[in-house]
Amino acid sequence: MSKLVEVMVTGVSPEVKARIEAFKKIRQQEEEARKRLSIVRHKIAVISGKGGVGKSFVSTSIALTLAKKGYKVGLLDSDLHGPSIPKLLGLQGQKMSAGPPGIFPVDGPLGLKVVSIDFMLPSENVPVIWRGPLKTGAIRQLLSMVMWGPLDFLVIDLPPGTGDEPLSIVQLIKDLDGTVIVTSPSDLARVVVKKAVAFAKQLKVPIIGIIENMSYLKCPRCGEVIRVFGQGAGKKICEEMDVEFLGEIPIDPRISECTTRGKHFLECYPESDVARAVDTIAEKIVSKIKEMKE
Ligand SMILES: Nc1ncnc2c1ncn2[C@@H]1O[C@H](COP(=O)(O)OP(=O)(O)O)[C@@H](O)[C@H]1O
Ligand SMILES: [Mg+2]
Questions:
Q1: From the CA of 273, which ligand is nearest?
Q2: 52 within ligand 1 shell (Cβ under 6 A)
Q3: What is the C-alpha to C-alpha distance for residues 241 and 44, in angstroms, rounded to an integer?
Q4: Which of 194, 207, 237, 248 could form an SS bridge with 212, CB 3.0 to 4.6 Å?
Q5: Ligand nearest 53 Cα, by number?
Q6: What's the CATH code of the domain at 53?
Q7: Coil, strand or helix: which one is 179?
Q8: Helix, strand, or coil (residue 145)
């Protein structure tokens, strides 16, 4: 049928028809994603204005700590360009299995349900070269297919900044309990991370609080505390932007050693200062979420 004849018969051009179909598909995927996420009680997005502050380390640590407390926890790595969750958890090279009902997350330590774009790439050296709409589409499609099952918490690790991925997650998951914002102690981070706070406020996403990572290094011999990366940006941001400070996490050089061994740091060193700090932070997150729901 020629374009002209089709327009005469159906009243719409093939282009318009294709656009209507694409729009319908997006709506269907959004609906499906919401349905699958409806059995997840609490959804927390971990964001930061700045890369390299340890956001993925913090996301994995919170997820594992909640799992250790007996909660059923899922972890979504939505950093399409630098997915690092599988590596931090020693799950590199694993694949998500797919069946008629959808895609199944990879089983991580302590029963964590882990989803990452990295599990779908043929090799870790393959870069993801996508622009905005494609990235939004990928996250939407992924969430429309994942079979999380019933979960108490879903921790979502977002890529740095306030770009396409954070925006699409916030738009897609309208019932986010809130966001946890990670900063490093430096003044440079403070300026950038404040933008993430403003981003959350602008989008009316509740802010659970701010975590300062890599706050200090404790000398293993004499116990002296050295503030390697500066003084307390986390607390300053909280005062300036009126948000809650959730705590500081020290630097531990053994983190990368564990990652190289294919284990998460908290599995290797459950009695460390880092583990204790994350435990206190996780408790605060749980009680703040309860408080915010009341
Ligand atoms: N508290 C910490 N002590 C020591 N190394 C850390 C700490 N937090 C994160 N790292 C390391 O810093 C690097 C960046 O962390 P990552 O979580 O990937 O950052 P982001 O997700 O913000 O880009 C990783 O190599 C990670 O192991
Ligand atoms: Mg990361």
A1: 1
A2: yes
A3: 20
A4: 248
A5: 1
A6: 3.40.50.300
A7: strand
A8: helix
Q: Which domain holds residue 275?
A: 39-293
Q: pTM here?
A: 0.91
Contacts of 43 (CB under 8 A, 6+ apart): 37, 153, 154, 156, 173, 175, 176, 177
Domain count, the chain: 1
Answer yes or no: is 22 within a domain.
no
Task: Find out whether the beta carbon of 252 lies less than 6 Å from any atom of ligand 1.
Answer: yes
| pLDDT tens by residue, 68-78 | 999 999 999 98
- How far apart, in whole angstroms, are the C-alpha atoms of residue 208 and residue 243? 8
Cα–ligand 1 centroid distance for 133 (angstroms): 29
Ligand 1 neighbourhood includes 75 CB (under 6 angstroms): no
**Residue 93: inside a domain:** yes
> Which residue from 106, 88, 46 is spatially nearest to 267, judged by alpha carbons?
88
- Across 51-55, 181-185, 187-191, the highest mean pLDDT is recorded for 181-185
- The ligand with the least distance to the CA atom of 212 is 1
Domain assignment present for residue 6? The answer is no
| pLDDT tens digits, one per residue of 185-211 | 998 888 888 999 999 999 899 999 999
Distance 20 CA to ligand 2 centre (A): 36
Q: Of all atoms in ligand 1, which is nearest to the CA of residue 274?
A: 1
* Amino acid in the structure at residue 93: G
